[in-house]
Amino acid sequence: MNFTILGALEILKDDRECTPKAPKVLQVLALLLLRANHPLPMSVLVRELWGDHPPKSAVTTVQTYVCQLRKAIEEVDTATEEPEYLLTRSSGYLLRVSPEQVDALVFQRLLGEGRRLLEEGRADAASKRLGEALDLWSGPCLAHVSRGPLIEPHAVRLEEQRLHAQELRIRAELLLGRERESIGELRSLAMEYPLNEWFHGRLIHALHRAGRRDEASTAYRRLRLALSEELGLEPSLELQTLHQEVLGASPAPPEPRRRPRGRPEGSVPLATG
C-alpha cells in the first residue's frame, strides 16, 4: 500500500485507489501522514479540524472520521498478513507505515542523497537523483485538502523543499555544461516563481550565453516589473550587472535597491510567491 501527498492525497495499492471523499476525513488522513509513525494526540486533530472553536461533539466526531478512514484502508488492504496501519493510542492515533510507502518520505530521502552527491562533486548522479525526487510531485502538496493550522506549516515546508530540489538540480545541470538544455526548464520555473531572482538570473545568463540577447533582456525586464509592482524593489545588484553585460555595455554603477513603498527603513518585506 502507498500513500501520496505530493499532489492529490490518495491511498493506493496495485493501481487500486480507495481514498475517502469526505473533506474532514481527508484532513485527518493528511495530518496522520505528515506525522507518520508518531502518535497524534486527539487534541491536535481537534485543533486542526476546528481551530480554537471546536464543537462539543469534537472528540466523538473525530472518532467517527477515524473509523471511516480505517474502513477505507481495510478496503484497499485485503491481505490479512499485512500489519495494521492505523493504531489507536491512549491519547489519540498513530499511522504506522514504512518510509517507502509515503511519497513525501521518499522525496526527502532522494533530496538528501542528491544534495550529498552534489557536495561530493558528482553532478551527473546528483541531477538524476534530484530528478527522481521531483518526479514524485504531481501538483501542489495535498491538492484539494483543506489546510488547518497544523497541516499548513508542514505543507509549506515540503513545498520549500521542492523549490530547493529544483535549485539543486539546475546547479547540477549547469555544472555539467547543460546550460542551453536548461533554458526551457528555467523559463518554466521563472514563470512559476515570478519573484525568484535566482531562477531569473540563471535564465538570463543561459539565454545570454546562447546568443539570445533580446530574450535575456526581456526576461530581465519582466523580473524588474514584477519586483517593482509586488515589492517596490529593484533587482539585485548582481542581476543589474548581468543585465548590463547582456546589453553589451560596460557595467554601470547599479541602481540602489529601493525600499518597499510605505514601509519604514530597516523593515523586512514578507515573502510572497
Keywords:
mainly alpha, three-stranded antiparallel beta sheet
Furnish the topology, listing elements before pairings.
Elements: E1 2-4, E2 10-13, E3 16-17, H1 23-34, E4 40-41, H2 42-50, H3 58-76, E5 86-88, E6 92-95, H4 103-119, H5 123-135, H6 151-175, H7 183-192, H8 197-209, H9 213-231, H10 237-247
Antiparallel strand pairs: 1-2, 2-3, 4-6, 5-6
General description of the model:
Helices cover 54% and strands 7% of the residues. It is elongated. The longest helix has 25 residues, at 151-175. It has ten helices and six strands, in the order E-E-E-H-E-H-H-E-E-H-H-H-H-H-H-H. Helix 1 (23-34) crosses helix 3 (58-76) and helix 8 (197-209) runs antiparallel to helix 9. The protein has a three-stranded antiparallel β-sheet, with no helix packed on it. It has a three-stranded antiparallel β-sheet with strand order 4-6-5. The chain is mainly alpha-helical.
